[in-house]
Design brief:
By secondary structure, the protein is mostly helical. α1 crosses α2. It has helices spanning 2-17, 19-27. It is flat and about 25 Å long. The relative contact order is 0.15. The protein has one domain. The longest helix is centred in the first third of the chain and has 16 residues, at 2-17.
């Protein structure tokens, strides 16, 4: 279930900013979330 939450967050950020979120998420990729 934790993995699902992390994925949901990524989808949420991607939906909100799209490519920008994807780049920021890749650059700021941290297991902190």
């Amino acid at each position: 279930r934790r993995g699902r939450v992390r994925r949901a967050k990524l989808y949420y950020l991607r939906s909100r900013r799209g490519k920008s979120a994807r780049i920021a998420e890749d650059t700021n990729y941290k297991p902190k979330s």
